[in-house]
Design a protein that fits this description.
alpha/beta, 8-stranded mixed β-sheet, 7 helices, 8 strands
Length: 212
């Protein structure tokens, strides 16, 4: 096979993938703007941004009040979303995208921070309440359902009970936690791929717990 044939084959494969319908939505939660980079609340954004850096996936088109990009994950064509409406209105983007592509809640995967988990810990859940996470709460409201999978990324508990929660989640990770959160964010996308390919039970078995 000549080099021209190889490039032709690659182009054909790329075109074939692009023609597949969107079957899943993978949402990373966070707040837009540089001042929120590396904050605990932006773990979902961080997971997708890390995936983009590793894979070349683009999530850079404004659509559905979000930065969006189409690509393959877990053998299926997915829409990646980073809502740009701020955390407590994340559901608007998810609702609009799900309605446009006719995606049911059980095929919407949300990557979010979780203050009840130690830094670097993952927890896969097939459905459930918001657990106090405002982005999840708004998605539940706009989808009218709690029955969507989520990958929770541990960002650490408040240092003391009277510590202001907003200040905690909008705080940045210290240097000594960077390795743990990066590993968890990387594995969060792998967990999403596993959900798509094998289901939530398999993803929970393979990814729940401390990642380092």
């Amino acid at each position: 096979m000549s080099i021209f044939d190889i490039f032709k084959k690659l182009d054909e494969e790329k075109a074939a993938k692009a023609s597949q319908p969107i079957e899943w939505i993978v949402v990373g939660l966070g707040n837009p703007g540089a001042k929120y980079d590396n904050t605990r609340h932006n773990a979902g954004f961080r997971a997708l941004e890390g995936y983009c850096a590793r894979s070349g996936q683009k999530i850079d088109r404004m659509k559905f009040k979000a930065l969006a990009g189409e690509g393959m994950l877990g053998g299926k064509r997915v829409l990646f979303l980073k809502p740009q409406t701020f955390m407590n209105l994340s559901g608007e983007a998810v609702r609009d995208a799900a309605a446009f592509y006719k995606i049911p809640p059980e095929r919407v995967i949300v990557l979010s921070d979780d203050v009840s988990l130690d830094v670097g810990t993952l927890r896969v859940r097939p459905k459930g309440s918001a657990g106090g996470q405002n982005g999840l709460k708004n998605i539940i409201y706009h989808l009218g359902s709690e029955d969507f999978p989520r990958v929770k990324i541990g960002v650490g508990k408040k240092p003391r009970p009277d510590y202001d929660l907003a200040a905690w989640v909008l705080g940045k990770f210290p240097q000594e936690e960077q390795k743990a959160i990066d590993k968890a964010c990387e594995d969060a996308v792998s967990a999403a791929a596993c959900i798509i390919e094998k289901g939530c039970a398999a993803a929970a078995q393979n990814f729940n717990g401390k990642r380092i």
